[in-house]
Amino acid sequence: DAGVIQSPRHEVTEMGQEVTLRCKPISGHDYLFWYRQTMMRGLELLIYFNNNVPIDDSGMPEDRFSAKMPNASFSTLKIQPSEPRDSAVYFCASSWAGRTQYFGPGTRLLVL
Amino acid sequence: DQQVKQNSPSLSVQEGRISILNCDYTNSMFDYFLWYKKYPAEGPTFLISISSIKDKNEDGRFTVFLNKSAKHLSLHIVPSQPGDSAVYFCAASHGGSQGNLIFGKGTKLSVKP
């Protein structure tokens, strides 16, 4: 039974470039979450969707960040333009009925 | 304003002994609590949860205790094994904000053989 799938696992890019992170949630789950983990701030929620609709994006740091969920099996988190301070591990998680969340392996992003 | 606090950044325990990880919260609206385990270069893995209507939940070697009056929960691992060495996060949510899990900063557990 496949868990949450994220791609790429690692991304190295230069400042100013566009970065797109991808997530496939667990089949049948109706909630999808994007998190960012840094040493300073720990694990912080960026945005979450319910039935493909964004519910709370108050954690999205700036307009440079955007997220979409075009269907129940796919979501993207885009950073444009990227900056060095965006370097972090980005996790996607999914759940059924919004309680217990199951995380993907994460995307380690390094912006030079 | 940290609503979920794990005050011990690290804990070292001998194999076979009990590991006790602690977590405090400030929001009395929280009604569902979870523990996650995280290995390096992997995502957090769900371990065990507890609803506020209970004060204890057990799953094998793992037991979570909830003290609502003290706004405190703890995770007990008995007996501890070297494979339990990981970072443990506690998280909380309330029914009015389904999906909005608030995480603590984590406690790194090291179980020595």
Q: Can you describe this structure in just a few lines?
A:
The complex is a heterodimer of chains A (112) and B (113). Chain A is mainly β and 112 residues long.
Counting helices, strands and paired strands, the structural category of chain A is mainly beta
Count every helix of chain B, treating DSSP H or I runs of 4 or more residues as helices: 0
Which regions of chain A contain 5 or more consecutive residues with pLDDT less than 50?
none
Q: How helix-rich are the residues of chain A, as a percent range?
A: under 10%
Q: What's the story with the biggest beta sheet of chain A?
A: 7 strands, mixed
Specify the number of helices of chain A. Answer: 0
- The total beta strand count of chain B reads 11
Radius of gyration of chain A: 13 Å
The quaternary structure here is heterodimer
Could you say which structural class the secondary elements and strand pairing of chain B correspond to? mainly beta
What is the averaged pLDDT score of chain A? 94
Total number of strands of chain A: 11
Overall shape of chain B = globular
Report Rg of chain B.
13 Å
The low-pLDDT segments of chain B are none
Arithmetic mean of pLDDT of chain B: 93
- Which strand-content bin applies to the residues of chain B? over 45%
